[in-house]
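Sequence, please.
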């Protein structure tokens, strides 16, 4: 009765490696889940962005001590160089496969890692800074030779107009969907902006240059003795918009002005919508996403060419103690030209105006990549967190004319009538321990004590 029946059938829910990994399509299908798990519009929810294959209770890895940082870095560089050798170029990826990793993505990530490890070592007493900085320069230089171009419009870069293979500035993105009717994944970022979950601070605004190419504040948020002629003392600002006038155009593309069409109409300074600073964030806001609550589909940029140019400039300077005008022209000054900031950064300009070249390179990074998730790790690697994170977090300057309907009794203002969002007395950063995260206690327990806690976290 069973002579003609085959009982040798494969399970439909479980596959062995030999059964599954047979074609290029198999690899693509498996990788799709990894792309789905890329960091999205998560508002910096750290610690939940990585999932490994689960270890068995008797796996020897559970009892391992911590692997030395140098060994991990070496493996990262080797893996990313291997990926560069085998991945396709960004230009050769078919439009239907847009969003998949390329040689440029691998080397841009190597540059990012090298810059972090190199500057962290330099400012925290490490011994291998030069090795990592050279990796950063090498990775960035490789990407700069791959034909990428900056997208022409900085504002549209973060909206639907900046999506797709026609924009070569985007090196790696997390793809969400076509529109609300064709959602692959979705987010709610524009509604988050409306609700004040991303509220620009005055601390950030102070970092933007004026149109003469000069700053007013240094990287430690201190007023410089020599500053732009356009600077208005904060206590003397005559209106809400005054601090936004005569500035690097990127500021006007990041923050809504008083009276400018914003979320539900013209922006009126307020703290009642959750925007605790009374500044309304424009960068990344778009009406189609806002109109579809919970179904926004604008792609999340994870690596873009502008970051590579900034990495190149910073790593070059940190490696050599100087940077040529030629290298500034193919990095920093390209970013300024894109937005119509017509004052170039050069060595002569820095000397003539008593500017620190390194500080100006860092400033350019702060404003170009504002609100893209780089600020905290930058403060950590530069060893500036103990200063920047223990200051008052400030917002807009109050005046009754612009703040229509606001009740001054509900506002915490300093002597200059500047809104204090968080008082420095409530903010803490202990440099003896907070430059490293604590190791989770369960990881220490699972290792049988082989993994040890970071200094001063006991």
């Amino acid at each position: 009765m069973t002579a003609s029946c085959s009982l040798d059938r494969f399970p439909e829910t479980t596959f062995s490696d030999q059964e599954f990994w047979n074609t290029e399509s198999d690899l693509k299908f498996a990788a799709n889940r990894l792309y789905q798990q890329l960091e999205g519009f998560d508002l910096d929810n750290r610690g939940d962005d990585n999932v490994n294959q689960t270890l068995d209770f008797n796996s020897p890895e559970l009892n391992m001590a911590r692997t030395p940082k140098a060994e991990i870095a070496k493996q990262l560089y080797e893996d990313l160089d291997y990926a560069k050798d085998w991945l396709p170029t960004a230009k050769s990826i078919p439009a239907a496969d847009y969003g998949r990793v390329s040689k440029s993505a691998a080397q841009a990530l190597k540059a990012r890692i090298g810059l972090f490890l190199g500057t962290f070592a330099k400012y925290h007493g490490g011994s291998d800074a030069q090795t990592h900085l050279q990796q950063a320069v090498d990775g960035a230089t490789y990407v700069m030779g791959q034909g990428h171009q900056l997208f022409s419009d900085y504002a549209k870069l973060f909206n639907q107009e900046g999506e797709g293979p026609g924009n070569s500035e985007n090196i790696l993105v997390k793809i969400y969907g076509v529109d609300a009717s064709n959602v692959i994944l979705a987010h709610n970022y524009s509604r988050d902006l409306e609700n004040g979950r991303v509220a620009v601070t005055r601390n950030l605004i102070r970092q933007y240059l004026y149109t003469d190419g000069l700053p007013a504040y240094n990287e430690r948020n201190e007023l410089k003795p020599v500053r732009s002629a356009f600077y208005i003392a904060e206590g003397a600002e005559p209106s809400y918009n005054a601090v936004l006038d005569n500035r690097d155009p990127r500021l006007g593309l990041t923050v809504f002005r008083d009276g400018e069409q914003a979320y539900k109409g013209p922006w009126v300074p307020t703290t009642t919508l959750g925007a605790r600073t009374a500044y309304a964030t424009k960068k990344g806001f778009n009406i189609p996403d806002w109109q579809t609550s919970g179904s926004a589909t604008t792609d999340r940029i994870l690596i873009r060419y502008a970051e590579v140019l900034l990495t190149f400039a910073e790593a070059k300077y940190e490696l050599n103690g100087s940077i040529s005008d030629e290298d500034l022209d193919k990095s920093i000054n390209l970013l300024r030209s894109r937005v119509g900031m017509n004052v170039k950064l050069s060595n002569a300009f820095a000397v003539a105006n008593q500017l620190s070249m390194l500080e100006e390179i860092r400033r350019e990074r702060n404003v170009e990549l504002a609100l893209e998730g780089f600020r905290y790790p930058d403060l950590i690697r530069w060893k500036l967190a103990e200063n920047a994170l223990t200051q008052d977090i400030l917002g807009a300057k109050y005046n009754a004319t612009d703040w229509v309907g606001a009740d001054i009794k509900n506002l915490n203002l300093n002597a200059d009538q500047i809104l204090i969002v968080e008082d420095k007395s409530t903010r803490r950063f202990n440099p003896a321990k907070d430059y490293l995260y604590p190791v989770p206690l369960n990881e220490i327990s699972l290792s049988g004590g082989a993994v040890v806690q970071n200094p001063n976290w006991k």
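The chain is about 35% helix and 5% strand.
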